[in-house]
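Fig. S4 source data, part A: sequence.
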Amino acid sequence: LAAKTAVVTKGYVKSIIRLNVDPARVVYLNDVVTTESVKVLVAKLKKLDGSSKPIYLLINSPGGEVLAGMNLISQLEGMQSPVNTVCTGICASMAAFIHQYGVSRYSIDRSLLMFHPASTGGDAGQIPNVLSKLHTIQRSLDKMFAYIATRSNQSLEQLQSKIVYGDWVDAEDAKAEHLVD
């Protein structure tokens, strides 16, 4: 980190951190989270892995597929290189979950995080099969919510009560709620 300053604007304090980022160690998620987009990101992350130098995952995404997002989160957790996440516009839905798994989580001014309950994504098929898949995904999401609650120093109940109808959080509130570092 190059510098950290505090700026007072209209009664609230902004914490500004200037990062020294090696452009060669930046990966972007600027699209919907899909199996294909995650496959490309995982390949890029694997190519950069293997040193102690941080990688920055810059995210501006409306979210997307839960299973694809969980695959990316597994890759982030398995990296030797630390991967820091930066919300550069909007991190909504699955993108907000991905953002929470950065070693350090950053957010630029006027960016937004949005968490909401998962949807079925249009699953079809035999009812027992669909119910089994949905139950398994819900258990995985519950574990991710527990991780986010712990990391943000909130109770699981506090976090879930905010998310039940969709929780939009700007950068300053995300900092106050410990959703960014």
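Fig. S4 source data, part B ends here. The beta strands are 3-9, 12-18, 26-29, 55-61, 83-92, 105-107, 112-115, 167-170.
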